[in-house]
Amino acid sequence: MAGAMAVLALGAGTATALTPGVATSATSAPGTDGSATPAPAAEPAEPATRADGDSDTTTAVDGKVVTRATTALQRAREVTSESTSLTAKQERAIAEQADAVAELLAARSSGAASRSSEREPLPTEREALPSASPSPLVEDDVRDEAGADDGASGDVVDDAQDGTADAVSTEQVATATKKLTRLVTKARTDVTVEAAPETPVEITAAQAAEAKAAAAKLAQHVDSFEGFANGRVPAAELRELSFAGGETLRRDAAAQLERLDVAFRARFGTHLDITDSYRSYDSQVAVRATKGYLAAVPGYSEHGWGVAVDLGGGVESFGTAEYEWLRENAPMFGWDNPAWARSGGSKPEAWHWEYTPLQG
Ligand SMILES: [Zn+2]
What we know:
Elements: H1 2-18, H2 24-28, H3 59-82, H4 88-111, H5 123-128, H6 137-146, H7 157-161, H8 170-195, H9 200-218, E1 238-241, E2 244-250, H10 251-268, E3 274-276, H11 281-291, E4 308-311, H12 321-329, E5 335-336, E6 352-355
Antiparallel strand pairs: 1-2, 3-4, 4-6, 5-6
Helix pairs in contact: 1-3, 1-4, 3-4, 3-8, 4-8, 9-10
The chain binds zinc ion (ZN).
Zinc ion (ZN) binds next to strand 4.
């Protein structure tokens, strides 16, 4: 009981915050008395199982509709107060619809005691209402109820004449709420187009599409190392990774790894952790001395061709989320953990990834 009253009071308060001028009837209504909450005990003759047009005799359904309406009002207040990019038109539409919902809630609470089912519109009449259309039917209902004479609302005058406007049905609240929710959702979508990040999956798909589109153009770099020996490529021919200072690759390999990194970061929040990339002949000799058979024979490493990286950050172990994600997604960028380096391969190295140019 107390909860329901708080809900109704909140609805009216929201309406006031949005447009004080229109909310007068809403703000006055909750003051009626404690009988505002629809009490199932007052209508014992009504079947409590119907969840359709006469659902307002069912408190459970009732409560849901009121909760939805209240939530919609809260969101309306949030979006109008927090958004800086709402158009004046959007803001007005949301404010007006919020007032309509608040008024329906208030009128519903004040009319609950005297409400009788025969005064409500027949189900067939209600079904005829275009609930999904942007027509101002709902507002007109409210205005009729409030006694305003609006020449444009002739299409709903019948409601007022047969007195149904006194009894606000659950469906009226639900319909008005639906419309408000739609306006708020639309506003939020418009607002968040720039601000909200796309999902990691969407970002990955977009990057992969770019990688594929860039493939033909990047093919010109494939032969750029021709004439140089493995590990003897001049620095000018290499491209440094923007997200990993000092780490260099052949230009096409670097470009596609940059795209993969964007996708990886969208998913994991961190850049790819590059522990090794292009390796000069001298450093291959040094690595061979340290790692022994684990490192390729100097002059034969893909690192010496600028098309291999060693990765940390979780990727160095099989079965991690990072490793599995890369196995699934990196091939779309031309990168993969080669078969020999996979778990069960001839020389398992989860951290070692190689680039093979995508076909354009
Ligand atoms: Zn490696």
